[in-house]
Amino acid sequence: VYTIQRVLTPATAAQYVSMATDYIKNAQEYYDGTATADDLGVKALDDKTLEITLIQPTSYFIDILSMWTFSPVQKATVEANGDKWSTEADTYICNGPFKIASMSMNENVILEKNENYWDAENVSLQKVTFRYVLDQATALTAYESGEVDGVASIPSSDFARLKAENAGVQTSPSYGTVYYDFNCSAEPVNNVLVRKAICLAIDRQSIIDNVVQVDAQPAYSFLAPGYSVDGKDITEGRESFGLSATADV
């Protein structure tokens, strides 16, 4: 409860506060100062049960809760330590398989095994060190020389080479779409036919192969592959407008 109230406090300047205001009952009003904590649709029914009342039924809200916006924070720790509660190892509260042993901003973070973790017996690593390396090329050099065990990202220009060399490159799909955005009030792209012509002229695969140079799929719709619909007939009503299944929209 405290976490969501804190997110909805303007002074917190929380990222993605809309993840709460767009879905939770009276969240926007609480943020605006026109509703109280009692009005907010977030209640602790007991020590282990949290009830969240939504503005309307939202089947995917459970997925939204996985965003860091809703990561639980401990009220006593935050209020006792001010801004440093999340920047110093002594005041950083963790609940995962590791705990923070030391934290040097812009240098590294050292994690140690958390013996209080519920599945600690299956955690084999005793320590993990994360280094801050902002330059991708520098990080890649450290990886290839064996200085570090892994890097989060690599220069796109090195992707094909590393993959061909079986250098341990692992990729995972990103659920998103990269696209060009037009100012539809400006000439000549205020003409839908011009925009359509540009769309047809774009060689998506060439951009993937020669510019992006990473694993990707050409996009022919705004929604990424795998997006599920709710089962409704999305062609319903076409007849009323004289539209065929292949009509332009």
Automatic annotation (TrEMBL):
GO molecular function, one term: peptide transmembrane transporter activity
InterPro entries with a match to the protein in the record: SBP_5, SBP_5_dom
Pfam families the record matches: SBP_bac_5 (PF00496)
Main subcellular location of this protein, as a coarse class: other
Location of this chain's protein in the cell: Cell envelope
Single Gene Ontology BP annotation: peptide transport
Keyword annotations from UniProtKB, A to Z: Signal, Transport
Domain Solute-binding protein family: 1-235
A GO cellular component entry from the record: cell envelope
Annotated family: Belongs to the bacterial solute-binding protein 5 family.
Database matches in PANTHER family: PERIPLASMIC BINDING COMPONENT OF ABC TRANSPORTER (PTHR30290), PERIPLASMIC OLIGOPEPTIDE-BINDING PROTEIN-RELATED (PTHR30290:SF10)
Protein's name in the database: Oligopeptide ABC transporter, periplasmic oligopeptide-binding protein
Taxonomic source organism: human gut metagenome
